Every structure is written in C-alpha cells, then in structure tokens.
Amino acid sequence: MNGSRYSRQIIYENIGEKGQKKLLDSTVAIIGLGALGTVSANNLSRAGIGTIKLIDRDYVELSNLQRQALYDEEDVKNEKPKAVAAYDHLMKINSSIILEPIISDINSSNVEHTIHGCDLVLDCTDNLEVRYLLNEACDHYQTPWIYCGAVGSLCMSMNILPGITPCFQCLTGNADPAGSNQTCSTVGVLNMVTNIAASVQSAEALKILLGSEKIRKSVFYMDVWNDSAEYIDIQKDPQCPVCGKHHYSYLGNAVGSYATSMCGRNEIQVVPMNPSEISFERLAASLEKLGDVKYNGFMLKFSNDNIGIKLFKDGRAIIENAKDANQAKSIYAEYIGL
Length: 338
Fold this sequence. Notes:
Blueprint: H1 7-10, H2 16-24, E1 27-31, H3 35-47, E2 51-56, H4 73-77, H5 82-93, E3 98-103, H6 111-115, E4 120-123, H7 128-141, E5 145-151, E6 154-160, H8 168-172, H9 184-187, H10 191-210, E7 219-223, E8 228-232, E9 258-261, E10 267-271, H11 280-287, E11 292-295, E12 299-303, E13 308-312, E14 317-320, H12 325-335
Parallel strand pairs: 1-2, 1-4, 2-3, 4-5
Antiparallel strand pairs: 5-6, 6-7, 7-8, 9-10, 10-14, 11-12, 12-13, 13-14
Helix pairs in contact: 3-10
C-alpha cells in the first residue's frame, strides 16, 4: 500500500491504515458514467478503491462537457465511448488500482455477471428501468447499492442495504410510464447539483465499504437553487414484491427495453419494457424548447440539428442518426425518459 498517496485519508480517524487496506481490497461497479458517474469514479479512484468497474453504453458528446467532469473536447472529437474515456483519464490519476472499462447496456441478460463479486454498486444512471433491475439483482445477491439522481437543481441519494433498509421499490412503488419523467435534456441540470449528489454518494460508498456505524438510513434530498435540504425516513414495506417477497419482474426475465436497426434505413427502433400510453401534449411542452415538435393523435415527431425521433402512443420510438443501438437507447432515455 502506498502510504504517501493515501496519507490524508489514513490519518483521518474513521479510516486509518486498516480502513485504507479494506478500501484497496474492495470492488465497486459504477453503472453510468455521466454527470454523476464521472464524479463518483474520480472520487473513488483517488480514494483508492482497489477495483472499479466503469460501465456505460454511450459516447462522449459536446453537451456532456458542461457537467461530466472527466471528459474534454478531445474525447468529443474522437467520439470516445464514455467507459474508455473515463478509463484513460482515471489511469493518469491512479494507475495503482484496477479499472475495468465496460462498454455495455445493462439489462437482464448481463446484470448478474456485471455485479458478481462486487462489494457495492453505484447507480449513476438516468434510467428508471435500470434502477428497478439493479434493485432486484442486488436484493437477490444481497449486494449493497446506492441510488443517486439529479435534475434541474434537485438531487437525491439513498443507500439500499438488502435485509436492512427499504429498497428502491419501497421508495417509488411501481415504475412511472415512459415520458412522465423529467430528464436533464428536457428541464436542464446544474453541474453544481450533480457534483454534490455524486460526492454524497461517494462518501456513503466509503462508509458502506468500511462497515461504518454512520451509514445513512434515510433518503437525502437537496435543492441547491432554493437552499433546502432534508432527510426523509422511508419505511420498509413488508408487502414489497422485491425486498419483502423476493418476486422479481426484471431479473432473469427476457424483458427490458430493446433496440433494433431498421433495414436499409439510418434509423433504430427502441421499444420500452412496459408499453404505456404517452401524453404527447405534456411531452411536447418539455421538448419544444429543444427543437421542432409536431404531433397528432398517433405520433409525435421531434428533431434538432443532431437527431430525429418518431414516437408512437405506446412508447415505441424510431431514432434517426444514432450511431448504434446503445446510443439510440440513450437518446430515448434523455428525451423521452425510460
């Protein structure tokens, strides 16, 4: 162990040499390397987490640089996958730990392999479907995970310790229908709030890995623009299908959103897991400031300088100009909500 590298952590009374060794022996999976994931990955790499899996399906784009702290204009120019770009930058920060870049879409077919052997999973996605899948997978394997989210000036974080705390299903109930969730692309986000949220998540990650008695059991909620912060107690639901009954709708099932290329066309179709009727009027109100929006009773069309989306009432969409299926799903999550 390089004592000089971690000296400022080692002299902190709640870590010490024993704690630092425990961190170096730990494995963490970070799902999503956007605004939240880049900050958490940076923090944990510098803190000396021994093995970090860096998982993301998307590429670095210019609009990412406002808040996604690890990337630069060269990554945009080279169209680097985020997992690779994050790996490249973090290796220059701490080459003594193991970093595993994984360019992948997390789904029911690979989530178990992805979290296998991990001491902790960090949710840094913008995807409700993935969070429900992680919730079930981590419950099944009794793996702690930390939910984290940010949009506008708001952020939330919740530690989920299987068998001890309420789970994500206890917090949210059933998944919201596609198109009903605010996203960073539709309402914006401050880089200050994503930095705060991910820093809170990173601090809780160290506490969980070290087995601290100070692990937060409540939901952390903050609005940086309106200067408010609170801790909300959530009760464990004994009838919860996940942590109460261990009945899983996502894990181990051939379900989930999927994307397929349209033969002979520069288009990719994305089909959400739970088709449900979308309010075109409400979605159009969110999208109209981002590009051109038209809709009738059957289809909504959205376009800007980079992409085009044809969205149908059941949530199915055709994405124009996406590089591949992974980016098509990312665009869907950004603009429609998944």
